[in-house]
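Morning. Coffee machine broken again, so started the prediction first thing and wrote up yesterday's gels while waiting. Chain of 225 residues, entered below exactly as on the submission form.
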Amino acid sequence: MNDLTKRAWSGLLSLLLAIGALMFLPAWSLAFWQGWVYWLVFSGSVLLITIYFLRHDPSLIERRLQAGPAAEKQRSQRVIQLVASIAFCALFVVAGLDHRFSWSRVPVALVGAGDALAGLGFLVVFLVFKENTYTSSIIEVAGDQTVISTGPYGLVRHPMYAGALLLLLMTPLALGSWWALVPVIPLGVAIVWRLLDEERFLIRSLPGYKAYLEKVSRRLMPGVW
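Came back before lunch.
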């Protein structure tokens, strides 16, 4: 097992344990079936994605391991990442508390739909990674990077954020908590703020990106925005 593989599995295990702790400790119970189903969907998705790209595109895994506010090179992105990280953690904490104190109830059918659509969000992210090896966790431009305008990038400018937003919007439903939608609001604001800031950076730093913006007008959803 090489160093990259060790770091990838270590990071993945830490993420999954953290999400489990953020859900189940506030719930103060392991009898949280919505949490278990979601955790399995989340874990299975990131596991399959990691296995695939460790085998087929280890450079992408290397770029994805540089994550979090401290890894960002621009001050604005450090602030955005900090806001997003806090809201992301809050989403699971609120869902756990909601389960513990029964603040709200989501019908089982909607819980199942939430899990299915969260899985679809992961599929979108996978297709983006497959199309664009330069998809880093931080805002940067590699020395040999070119503009990608094929696949999902032919539909919207930021398909990875679109997939992530779908995943995040469906997470409260999958966890059976209406109240967990509240932290999704600052998460959505952070994603929109990030992609607008990223566009300004790429116009300055990536040749051909301005022409791409003129070709693909929608940022997150075809025909909408």
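The domain at 3-215 is CATH 1.20.120.1630 (Four Helix Bundle (Hemerythrin (Met), subunit A)). Going to sketch it on the whiteboard this afternoon.
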